[in-house]
Amino acid sequence: MTATRVLAPQGQPGASPYALFSAYPLLRGALPRVPLGLWPTPVDSLPRLADELGVGPIYVKRDDVSALPYGGNKIRKLEILLGDALSRGATDVITFGAVGSNHAFATALYGRALGLNVTSMLTPQPNAGYVRRNLLGHLASGASVRFSENRDEALQEAERLRAKLVRDTGIEPYVIPFGGTTPMSTAGAVSAGLEFAGQVAAGSVPAPDVIYVTLGSMGTAAGVALGVALGGLSSLVRAVRVVPDTIATSEAFEELLGASAAVLRAGDPAIPRDVVARANVEIVEGHLGEGYARFTPEGIGAIRLAALDGLHLDGTYTGKTMAALVADARSGRLDGMTTLFWDTYNSRDTGGLVAGVQYRDLPEPGRAYFETGVQPLDIEGN
How far apart are CA 245 and CA 288, in angstroms? Predict the structure, then answer.
């Protein structure tokens, strides 16, 4: 299935310095990058949330507004991944995700805008309002979608497509894994950490004692931990696991930290050899609930608390991460501390992107998400 419209990015990406390249100039020639985001993303205070929880100041890093027309943390990885695809002369991109994957939708949107053919291999997940929005977004972008029963089947189907594209075009397609996390793409989140450290140095926000960030495919959490360490901050990064432990393990996380640091050092030897040791990060358990993308009462409660300050979180990722912050605050763990919440969920209104798009243009497995109800806790379309 392929739709016809192609939607271009808006705003002025690339107008501001890129924190990673400013700090380590040799990486400019070593890492492929296509500007997509609007950097730096702002930092705001959350006074109503702090008052409600009875703790010290809470701030939010607003990666939810990282780009136009669609934001979120995935833009930081895609600047590297799509830059690499273009530098290799690829004309096709294949990626993966659950049906409601923010990564797959963002890849479709920005990949198509850059003139790349994009195919998303999608797997089942619990239904939610954002699942429907992201499926419509795929249609609007002009990308292709294929539905598989599970991850293994999606990988096999992708290999068949890859081989066919090579036969038909003679050009190797660029394959992006689930979540868009690779040691190289993690550099985008390293830049995010350095960007935030620069905002601290400029006096825009005090240095936090603790930073809460989602742990999914692990790239954002690993990159932020490395970036804030490179920026001279000793903040503890609490990475809240919201995916099964078969995907995000302590061993895999440590491996990603090391491999990502190695990519950076290969491009610029000024990267300290001990940067992984400097990274102050721990994985937080206990907030996944009954499974990936299954909303929890604690997550929905945290979404409502965040809305006091105008944040729009989701039930799969950021709501559960905020629930960890709320639980820590109520236990007294955050007493006397300055806290930062890293908002990775797009808050841009995608209504204009999908206006006039008909879900019936999806293959049957996609249409089913519009013809059956959302999960019970998704009472607010999250």
Answer: 10
- 341 in helix, strand or coil? strand
Pick from 145, 75, 147, 166: nearest CA to 114:
75
What CATH number is attached to the domain comprising 266? 3.40.50.1100
- Give pTM, 2 decimals: 0.95
Strand spans (E) along 109-169: 117-123, 144-147
Do 198 and 320 lie in one domain? The reply is yes
Task: Please tell me whether residues 172 and 185 are part of one structural domain.
Answer: no
Tens of pLDDT along 234-273?
999 999 999 999 999 999 999 999 999 999 999 999 999 9
Phi, psi values for residue 251, rounded to 5°:
-65, -45
- If one counts every other C-beta atom within 10 angstroms of the C-beta of residue 15, the result is 9
**What distance lies between CA 249 and its chain's CA centroid?**
18
Q: What is the pLDDT of residues 323-341, one digit of tens each?
A: 999 999 999 999 999 999 9
Q: Which domain holds residue 94?
A: 74-180+353-371
